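Figure 2 data, in text form.
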Amino acid sequence: MHELTMSQKIFMNESFAYSGFQIKIDRFISIKSLEKAIIRVIRTNGSLRSTIAKIKDSMVRIEYNMPNHVTIPMIDISQYDVNTKNEIIENLFTKLCFKEYKLGSALLYRIVIIRENLKKYRIIMPFHHAVFDEMSGEVIEKQLIKYYEDIEKGIIVNETREECEDYYFQIKKGPQKITEEEIIEQFQLNDFKENIIRVSSTLKQYNHQATKEHILKIPLDNFNRLTEIGNLWGMALWLTTILCTEYFGITKIPITLFNYGRKYEGKTYFDSVGNFIDMIPLIIDTKAEITKEISAIGEKLNATAIHNINFLTLLFDQELQQRYQQIYKLLTPNLDSLIMLNYHGLVTEKAVETADYYSNGYRKLFADKINNKPPANGIIFDIMYTRSILRISINGPKGLVDKDLGTIIKDKIRLFDNDIDSYYHLKNTSKEGTSVL
């Protein structure tokens, strides 16, 4: 049995903790070799052989031994036209993704191989979010491709990879070589508390309203410079803060950033499957230069890695709560009013497709619950982009996000793109009037 991390416990308490990913294969393959590769991935990663159960009032992860025989289900839809195939795939994803998990008696994910034609396959793997994060999908896909190629070449390598337990003990150590006062100062936690109180005050006005998700997809070929390196991250940050300034009437925006860092005190967990998410409190000053704010965020993320700071563990681990009482008092009073930013960066087309499957399926299956559910956890900005489109999802109280956001966001992005140097404060005028960088 293994103890759960704080992020796992949080997702176990969420009503809609659904996640997952898909792998697309566009070539002739051996189904037998693919099945063997999938089984090897499961054998390698203890998290894929685990369930979560309640034992003596505690939630723990129970890892099973690899069974002698495993069957990977496959569905052949090659006889259908493209539109029908797409409909089948989306409906199947929805059914598998949102089916309730039986804790303590079943694995916390599902898997199916879909054959679209002789050289086009996809693997759908929905997960419970307590045992999966976005990087885990990349790890599984990388392993699967390697194992498939090894099997085709006749290479047999038995691996086991279980770093989740080590990760649990690593973050439970708490911050190292940094004082509580230094954490409060570097992460501007007093400013964070002051401004999150103002956010909470505004959100309380919408407590009677349902939660609304607004999704916008913007073709990047409409803009000139957004695809330059770094500009999309700067734009995502700028757009989030500008909208929040309008929503909440503040210029210092308290943002909670999803962190997939997986790095603490020199130890890394980049090859592991599991939930390694942390939430980093940030203050973004809309009056400051974007480049300085981005640099400050980088310094804070580096500090979490160097000094072993995991905020979810600081807030919810009872032992660490006692050791870091000031941080606990600053961050916990308004946890239901957070402004969360989940910035995925550059993703594949299939990642956008999966996000759409999730959003569409959620609306279809839980329409009644969504319409009757009061806003929770503040407002969430979920931003990703491919080489061709920018996908923005804003989830929050209906009265706050159910405006003509499409036009508003497009206009603001166009404004940002047209004068990107000014927003980055790259254009400075010398005494002679010459523009210099």
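Caption note: Residues 21 and 354 are 6 Å apart (CA to CA).
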